[in-house]
Design goal:
mainly alpha; 7 helices; globular
């Protein structure tokens, strides 16, 4: 995966466009997460990670303040990508499909958000986080 500083201007613009598109489906993602929280097939640890992530994203207190232009949402995106990656690895695909009412394949949407979030994390930090 490329470091953000290695991306071309066209690549940065494409990522920004993707982020805007995903911001529009945020209500559907929240609905998916709410449904997963109530599903007994989702492990308790996964539910805890989801709950903490949603709480952090909705909280006015952030590691990187939202008032900082272009950087204020990075922590939210990275944390959301982490939580979605966790869910993708631990919840069966058919459960995700069952709870998704958005357009497109929920797995593709989640993978793209994970890729965007991972692209925002510096390489030295990614090396510290086990798979």
């Amino acid at each position: 995966m490329m470091e953000p500083r290695d991306m071309s201007a066209a690549s940065k613009e494409e990522r920004q466009t993707q982020l805007k598109e995903y911001a529009l489906i945020a209500p559907r993602l929240l609905k998916l997460l709410g449904r997963l929280m109530r599903d007994p097939r989702v492990p308790a640890r996964s539910k805890a990670i989801l709950l903490c992530t949603v709480g952090y994203v909705l909280s006015p207190i952030d590691i990187i303040p939202d008032a900082i232009p272009r950087m204020g949402r990075v922590d939210d995106i990275v944390l959301t990508a982490f939580a979605l990656d966790h869910i993708l690895k631990r919840v069966p695909d058919h459960v995700l499909h069952e709870h998704w009412d958005g357009d497109g394949d929920v797995l593709d949407v989640i993978r793209n958000i994970i890729e965007i979030g991972a692209g925002l994390v510096p390489r030295w930090i990614r090396k510290l986080i086990p798979d």
